[in-house]
């Protein structure tokens, strides 16, 4: 006998996720009525069609809604579920996922939105929730909450209105992601705040981001880019999927060196499916350059997404930008290689040129993008540091990040000016 979850997209039942009892296998089929209405597909890797999907594409898409690594291990342990049992984990926490997807037990329709499902968190309650999050990832099984967020650090989805943070239950859309500091890495809140703000200053689309404190414990508050406010002031969901989901690649092989997507695969995805392929490929390339300049070695394919504002997707705003190079225990190898190199200290112009077509125009445009992005980072980083020190207080992490940016940006300028053909 199969276990079944109904899969909803924008509150409409799109199909069913199956798992045979005694098996970790996942199968998915679209609902016949959904197909007749010619509604959007769940994923590029799961196009509309009759029949049953199975294998890597189903596992990649649905496991992509769950947290990664240690957080997933802790979540499974708390719930008493095997961490490889994607179906059971989604059954427990899949009510509010990334984008506009939600999962409910078969036949159990999502409840109507209710303003009473919003709980304002005062300082005492927020402090309690943050402490609870350390033991209970995603606040699983807490007072009716069913939410799931991908990523390798603790976080929860919340709503923010008039400056007040609230927990939401049922089908009320959340508006922000709250991310506490990572306990064993110094000043991760200040680190991500700096990198996200700098990205905006250099012309990369990012959501609004700010920092707060609860009992002297910092947290990051990031506006959800997969939400939009309609004319009546109501929050609506936008569908999204990360690059691993779109390519049918499971999140546990998200790094290129272990078989995950590389830059060329990501560019091909945009070329073949984006609403604005040329612009999005250029934006993606700028993001690759920016991650190199700020020292973010963890820019893997799950940290890039497609956002569905229309029937065809576009490249989503940047998120999870963090300088990993300042932490000695984290890998120096880049998640996706540049040219043939994973080592950021051994990148030369010839490596960058491998990312674009072998034409004089493409190489010239690439060099201009490298130089303008490097110069913009150099120009904006010192002023941003001063601004953030006034906003959130001084942190040694700001100087560390600025030092890495200065070294890498000046190296890019020197290499292109003096040795463009190396």
Keywords for this structure?
single chain, 422 residues, alpha+beta, Phosphorylase Kinase, domain 1, Phosphatidylinositol 3-kinase Catalytic Subunit, Chain A, Domain 5, 3 domains, six-stranded antiparallel β-sheet, five-stranded antiparallel β-sheet, 12 helices, 16 strands
Descriptive overview:
The chain is an alpha+beta fold and 422 residues long. It has three domains: 104 residues, no CATH class; 109 residues, Phosphorylase Kinase, domain 1, CATH 3.30.200; 172 residues, Phosphatidylinositol 3-kinase Catalytic Subunit, Chain A, Domain 5. Helices cover 36% and strands 18% of the residues. It has a six-stranded antiparallel β-sheet with strand order 6-8-7-9-11-10. A hairpin with a 2-residue loop joins strand 1 and strand 2. The longest helix has 33 residues. The chain is globular, with a radius of gyration of 22 Å.
| Helical run tally | 12
Query: What is the fold-level CATH name, i.e. the topology of the largest domain?
Result: Phosphatidylinositol 3-kinase Catalytic Subunit, Chain A, Domain 5
Percent of residues in beta strands = 15-25%
CATH architecture of the largest domain: Orthogonal Bundle
Give a nutshell description of this structure:
This protein has helices at 32-36, 56-63, 69-79, 86-93, 123-135, 188-201, 243-247, 263-273, 277-294, 349-353, 360-392, 396-418, and strands at residues 2-9, 12-20, 27-30, 53-54, 101-105, 118-120, 156-161, 164-168, 176-180, 209-214, 217-223, 227-229, 235-237, 239-242, 305-308, 314-315.
């Amino acid at each position: 006998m199969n276990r079944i979850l109904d899969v909803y997209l924008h509150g409409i039942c799109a199909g069913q996720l199956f798992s045979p009892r005694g098996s970790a296998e996942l199968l998915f089929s679209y609902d016949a009525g959904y197909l007749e209405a010619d509604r959007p597909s769940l994923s590029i890797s799961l196009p509309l069609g009759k029949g049953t999907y199975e294998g890597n594409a189903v596992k990649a898409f649905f496991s992509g809604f769950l947290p990664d690594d240690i957080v997933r291990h802790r979540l499974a342990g708390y719930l008493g579920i095997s961490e490889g049992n994607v179906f059971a984990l989604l059954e427990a926490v899949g009510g509010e996922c990334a984008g506009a997807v939600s999962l409910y037990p078969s036949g159990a329709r999502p409840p109507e939105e209710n303003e009473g499902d919003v709980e304002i968190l005062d300082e005492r309650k927020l402090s309690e929730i943050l402490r609870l999050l350390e033991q209970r990832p995603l606040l699983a099984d807490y007072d009716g909450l069913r939410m799931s967020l991908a990523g390798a650090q603790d976080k929860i989805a919340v709503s923010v209105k008039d400056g007040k943070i609230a927990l939401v239950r049922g089908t009320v859309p959340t508006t922000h992601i709250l991310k506490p500091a990572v306990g064993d890495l110094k000043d991760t809140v200040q680190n991500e705040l700096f990198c996200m703000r700098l990205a905006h200053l250099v012309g990369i689309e990012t959501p609004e981001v700010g920092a707060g404190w609860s009992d002297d414990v910092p947290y990051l508050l990031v506006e959800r880019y997969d939400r939009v406010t309609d004319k009546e002031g109501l929050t609506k969901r936008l569908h999204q999927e990360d690059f691993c989901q779109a390519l049918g690649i499971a999140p546990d092989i998200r790094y290129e060196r272990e078989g995950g997507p590389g830059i060329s695969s990501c560019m091909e995805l945009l070329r073949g499916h984006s609403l604005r392929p040329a612009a999005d490929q250029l934006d993606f390339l700028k993001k690759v350059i920016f991650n190199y300049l700020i020292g973010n070695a963890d820019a893997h394919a799950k940290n890039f997404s497609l956002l569905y504002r229309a029937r065809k997707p576009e490249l989503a705003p940047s998120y999870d930008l963090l300088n990993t190079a300042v932490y000695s225990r984290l890998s120096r190898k880049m998640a996706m290689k540049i040219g043939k190199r994973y080592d950021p200290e051994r990148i030369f112009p010839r490596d960058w040129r491998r990312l674009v077509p072998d034409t004089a125009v493409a190489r010239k445009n690439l060099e201009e993008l490298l130089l303008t992005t490097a110069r913009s980072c150099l120009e904006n980083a010192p002023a941003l540091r001063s601004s953030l020190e006034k906003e959130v207080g001084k942190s040694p992490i700001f100087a560390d990040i600025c030092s890495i940016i200065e070294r890498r940006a000046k190296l890019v300028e020197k290499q292109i000016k003096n040795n463009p053909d190396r």
